[in-house]
Amino acid sequence: MAPDYEQLMEDLRTGKRESFSVDPDNFMAFHDAYMSYEYRKRIIGMAGLDGHVIYHFDKDGKATN
Predict the structure, then answer these.
(1) Which of 19, 29, 48, 54 is 20 to 30 A away from residue 10, measured at CA?
(2) pTM value?
């Protein structure tokens, strides 16, 4: 079962979490949650190894890695 990506994105927005990663097997579940998330334009992904993507929240228009 895929993680609750909507909650993970909300945790990024509220500062409860700095980042989270998505593996290739769960990407479509993440994508569905991402497309319906109100603040999706502020969720920034950085490609990692083997198809993993690490997401963080863009605070004040500046990417925070």
Answers:
(1) 48
(2) 0.86
